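Listing S7. Sequence submitted for prediction.
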Amino acid sequence: MFRQWGPIGLLLTVLLARGAALAANGDLYQASAVVSGKGEASRSIGLAQTFEDVLVKVSGDPRLMGDPKIAALKQQAAQFVATYQYRDRMSGVPIHDEQGTYDRPHDLTVSFDPARIDALLHSLGRKAWLDPRPRIVVFLDVVGRKESFALAEDGSKEPDMRSSLAAAARKVGLPVALPTVAQLTKYELNAETLPSADLSVSDAAARNAGGDVALAGDLRWSDSALGWIADWRIDYRGTPFRWQIKGVGFDDAFRNGMRGAAQILSGNGPP
């Protein structure tokens, strides 16, 4: 029998070596899913989804997604749960005659038992990535159907992209930031120069922005690919890494970028 708990803070404070206080992601052992109600069947689906999310977030290894061993273990996700709570996504909306409380969409937030998750990861040949996680500053040039621009924290372009990038980073437990317009200008980084910019320049700009490492991205719309093509690159501890995804929406492109960065920075190898 699980107990439900009250609201908890979604953000925790991470102190970087430089002494700056930066807002990072929530508890590594916690994840949320949207479920169709508070019934057991819906909860089981949500537990399975959040279970996989937490394994990826804690280990930093997105290759666990879709792993046959994980697929089997997802049916036993309840055994790893410490607590959970619901939030009615339609709070304040009257319940109609044909709509019971169990048919309303809810956010299911699940906190998993750290010791059990760590032990499971060890049995799978993985380990919990509990070291302070480097803050990534994303330098992204976007070439769309009508215009090109560098995505900036305080820019006027594509607020939906900024929100999507932040959500993708939370999913894998990575602190992430975008440069400001002033920081991009200082290092002469824009939609034209970013694709060929040396990562040493981006890394210097990342440090100027209060981060630790730069992730460079090139996001281009392709009619032939029926979606966006995203090329990602990062240099970490003297080793360059490159990866790509094609024909996707920008949400999937950002998830691919964040998962790849997590895999590299956690020591799980190239994407």
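Caption to Listing S7: primary sequence and predicted structure tokens for the chain studied. Helices lie at 40-59, 68-73, 114-123, 159-172, 181-186, 199-208, 250-265. The CA atoms of residues 16 and 22 lie 7 Å apart.
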